[in-house]
Amino acid sequence: MRRIKSLSETLSSVLVTLFGLAVVTFMIGRVVPIDPTIAIVGDHAPPDVVAAARLQLGLDKPLPVQFLIYVQHLLHGDLGRSVMSSHPVTQDIAQYFPATVELATTAIIIAMLIGIPLGVLAAARQGSRFDQLVRVISLGGQSVPVFVLGLVALLVFYVKLGWAPGTGQQDVLFDGTVPRVTGMLVVDAALNGDWDATSDALAHLALPALVLAFFSLSTITRMTRAFMLDALGGEYIVTARAKGLSGTRILWRHGFGNIAVPLITVLALAYAGLLEGAVLTEVIFSWPGIGQYLTVSLLNADMNAVLGATLVIGAVYVGLNMLADLAYRLFDPRVR
Amino acid sequence: MLVRMDNLRVGFRTPQGVSEAVRGVSLTVGQEKLGIVGESGSGKSLTARSILRLLPGSATVTADKLEFDGIDVLSAREGALRRIRGKRAGLIMQDPKYSLNPVMTAGAQIAEAWRAHKGGSRRQATKAAIDLLAQVRIRDPARVAGLYPHELSGGMGQRVMIAMMLAPDPELLIADEPTSALDATVQADILRLIEDLVAKRGMGLMLISHDLPLVSHFCDRVLVMYAGRVVEEVKAADLHRAKHPYTRGLLECLPSLVKPKPQLSVLKRDPAWSAPQ
Amino acid sequence: MSSTRDWLLTDAPSSRRQAAWGRRYRRWLQFRTNGLAMFGLTVAVILILGAVFAPLLAPQNPGAQNLAMRLAPPSAQHWLGTDELGRDLFSRLLYGGRVTLGMVVAVVILVAPIGLLVGSVAGYAGGWADRVLMRVTDVFLAVPQLILALAFVSALKPGITSAVIAIALTAWPPYARQARADTLTIRHSDFIAAARLTGASGTRIVLHHIIPLCLSSMIVRMTLSMSGIILTAAGLGFLGMGAQPPMPEWGTMIATSRAFILAQWWVPAIPGIAIFVASLAFNLLGDGLRDVLDPRQR
């Protein structure tokens, strides 16, 4: 019963946050200095055409009514039409989002596999040379602008060393050969059984994913280290030592065991942070994801597209946080 | 003798220099019940934990001699220490709320201690854990084995802790304020349990407490510590004949039902007690 | 000299002022032992001085074009070389520091008081006010800072002022969160109860008792968030949504010279290094300050 209650609390807070998000995007859309009708009908349209368009967009109605209409459209998955592509924004996002998911997921897995052990070991040897090194690496990672890192990576691994293929998701050679299923090229190519295309897609994915991984590696490492220090200071660690357990077992079973679930929240946060890094990384690597879509729309003042993408990213973030919260409730005996 | 300790010193490095918390303690423990009494900060816990080398990383420990059953604890390698910790000497700490791992069930924590020293299968270990829970007089051991620490009461938690430390059949039990965090009614139960188990298994016991009457009632021999040093060592039965002014002072501060005093006396501290010798 | 030191380090200060300065001096002594933090402090000071005195230090006008000297490598005349329009990179870098640090200062001045006030009021008042304020921060935290800032800038007009407003609008929630958490721990302490018993009003308690105690963690957060602001500002500039060319902003400089990375890699690399160094300096400084001012957060 208590679980159901706390679950409904989580859900209602998620709904409130999503509603607030809609308010914010709506407000941004209204303060825009460019008249949205002009953007549709063009600068030189005759006044009666402009007026008709205004009427059609519902811009003559009072703001609260406009907001209700906006929310109603949102609930139907209608984010408006992109001026640039002249497709519905929802369709555009469905087109671009999988590539971002592919990139960000690969990155978070790499960051996790490296960051968590680094953080755990740094905490285990607090104050040692190794700890200092980890501290410097993670502070450095936090300080490098991801677009500079991307440019440097391209310069070194593509231009100088020639290890990485160029920008984009695949070689021109494979252009249009892979039927779209999930939108994630590596997966689609593998599903198609086309191993050349798969390995080509993987090769294209590697460098941007590594750049992005480094971007969130520092957060994951630092948080893991901080959580671990907290856990290792616990009395139950003294108990575990008094039991005569091995150092490895104490560290991983008793120390890490206590932070594994809270770490899920950090990972969810880091994943959402990756969407931010993805915007810049996608621009550098010409990766056809939502970040690329967002920036191109920005430069063309395509407000529906910009706000739609913002809203979707926000919703993904809220959703991830909710999942982390649920995981917490499911797996942590202290909350259960 | 199980433990021989000669001139033990434990210090902590601070920006103002090393501050010594234990300043030259010598003691021995055999198959007996030894009580160590002292106020907070007197160094009694650190003294006890040094025997298993379970001090925080920032502590520096030196001693002319620190042996557990002839094994030099200070120079022992981690592997040798692990064969003492748990297996030959158990440590019970103050508050089960903090000393039990919050994300492992009681049964799993006991089974882990059992398996670490006796080996065997998971199933055997679980069975042993339930058996141990019964030995510490938990009524429904199979159910309690599946509970997490936050679902246990303080008294139950401490029983789990005791069961865990008894699992590998140690020769010495170090109990560091085992009842201070518990309700008064539960305290007596836990102490009686420890007393019975120690007698039944023929273990040595080191009981650390700030409660002088309790320790003298319970132990064979009492050490009184003050400011990192042992100031008095007496047979528990002879406590009323204690000589050191600190011990005398403590005894006089106690309210008595037999000879009530209109006003309890207050302990007056003499700086000479903690002056370097 | 040594008498000042003794006065500061005495175990028995004779006034509150002496005790306060003594505490500060001890913290400074502790801070000084942290090499990385001292490095961060030194670099930050150099950057700030460089930005403030840019007109005196810059060897040339940062906007002066010299197309004959396009993309020149570093030389005695142009210490860091020139960009695609033949402008002196070193001078542009100094002036760029003014833009970047100016934006950082503007954002922090706007954001820290708002966050502090919102957080401490929410934490102290509790109940409804708390719930509403925290939901609002949740909404702003729900979108990554750069993306929300991009949306805001696109609605305003690309430029420095919009960028500052947009970053400020997205940067306050963490401050509020922190201040609220601090307030919650302070709120239940006995001295607050004592202040309430003497009849102090809620406003007085928040202003005189709670906010001063939140300050040290605020300073830490401010320093650490400065590096984040530098990165977001540079990111906006790089995407063409922040400072507009020909203004010498570091992110914008990278964006305009990106095409030359293959042949004249130092042209985009130099502002990139500048962003990295500035951001790293504030991160190191903040990390060191946290050890001294707010040890429980480690």
Automatic annotation (TrEMBL), chain B:
According to its UniProt record, where is this protein located? Answer: Cell inner membrane
Membrane topology of the entry: Peripheral membrane protein
Q: Which InterPro entries match?
A: AAA+_ATPase (IPR003593), ABC_Ni/Peptide_Import (IPR050388), ABC_transporter-like_ATP-bd (IPR003439), P-loop_NTPase (IPR027417)
Q: What is its main location?
A: membrane
Cellular component, GO, one term: plasma membrane
Q: Which SUPFAM superfamilies match?
A: P-loop containing nucleoside triphosphate hydrolases
Provide the ABC transporter domain boundaries: 3-252
Can you tell which superkingdom this protein's organism belongs to? Bacteria
Pfam families in the cross-refs = ABC_tran
> Is GTP-binding set as a keyword in this record?
no
Identify its protein family.
Answer: Belongs to the ABC transporter superfamily.
Protein's name in the database: ABC transporter ATP-binding protein
Q: Which organism is it from?
A: Acidisoma silvae
Q: Specify the taxonomic lineage.
A: Bacteria, Pseudomonadati, Pseudomonadota, Alphaproteobacteria, Acetobacterales
From TrEMBL, chain C:
Q: What is this protein called?
A: ABC transporter permease
Where does this chain mainly localize? membrane
Please give the start and end residues of each transmembrane region: 36-58, 99-125, 146-171, 223-243, 263-286
User: What domain of life is recorded for the organism?
Assistant: Bacteria
Annotated ranges, domain ABC transmembrane type-1: 97-286
Quote the InterPro entries the UniProt record gives: BP-dependent_transpt_permease, MetI-like, MetI-like_sf, OppC_N
Q: What membrane topology is annotated for this entry?
A: Multi-pass membrane protein
Annotated Gene Ontology cellular components are: plasma membrane
Gene Ontology terms: biological process: protein transport
Organism (species)? Acidisoma silvae
